[in-house]
Amino acid sequence: MQPRVEPAARMHEVHPTSGPEAEKERARGLQVHMDRAQAGQMMGWSPRALGRPVVIGLAWVAMLAACSPAGAGPSTLAGASGAGGPAAAGQRIFEVGAGPDGAQIPRSGGIGMMGGSGCAACHGANGHGIASMMIQAPNITYANLTDPAGMLEIDGGRGPVYTDAEIERAVEDGIGADGDQLDKTMPRWQLTDAEWQDLLAYLKTLH
């Protein structure tokens, strides 16, 4: 097999590292890799999250690492609750895992690929979850988590009903509404009170 040689123009292509174009490029990359994950036909894993275990394939890890480089922060989202409101600041946390100053929010657990990414990496840009043969993560929109009938799970079953305090506990401590520990692949986010309120405000905008 002959080694592949990249065209010179492609080899010397310069990609922006900051500014609106960089943010758009990162968003496009995230969506492309989510689409690939949803179309993937690999092994018959049955991963689950937020009250259910999650298992993620190595291919998914590699794709997320490629589209979400550590330290890459957003440049077009509002930076603080006062700039664009709490929901705008919460969007930053949801999409790229960054606080008001653009720095990555500390977290523990996860699977070693969460740097530079947020909730959207596993739960989708709209929070509706991802269901593929590589990863299954549930719908974490506020309406679903607090549905009186129980949150709708990936398998069509009903899970527990979450209160605001229980959503916060799941996000920060990895404990579900039923008191069970969430899978270790669910990161435990070290949010400030203000950051949590921002994230919650944004979850409530997702439908």
How would you portray this structure in words?
The chain is mainly alpha-helical. It has one domain (16-203). Helices cover 36% and strands 4% of the residues. The protein has 8 helices and 4 strands; from the N terminus they run H-H-H-H-E-H-E-E-H-H-E-H. It has helices at residues 8-11, 20-39, 58-67, 85-96, 120-123, 142-145, 164-173, 193-203, and strands at residues 107-108, 130-131, 136-137, 188-189. A hairpin with a 4-residue loop joins strand 2 and strand 3 (136-137). The longest helix has 20 residues, at 20-39.
How many structural domains?
1
Total count of helical runs of at least 4 residues: 8
Main β-sheet description = 2 strands, antiparallel
Shape: globular
Radius of gyration: 18 Å
Q: Strand order, main sheet: write it out.
A: 1-4
The poorly predicted ranges are: 1-17, 36-49, 51-80
Hey, roughly how much beta strand do the residues contain? under 5%
Distance between the termini: 49 Å
Mean pLDDT: 73
* Helix and strand element order: HHHHEHEEHHEH
Q: Give the tally of β-strands.
A: 4
Structural class: mainly alpha
Helix content: 25-40%
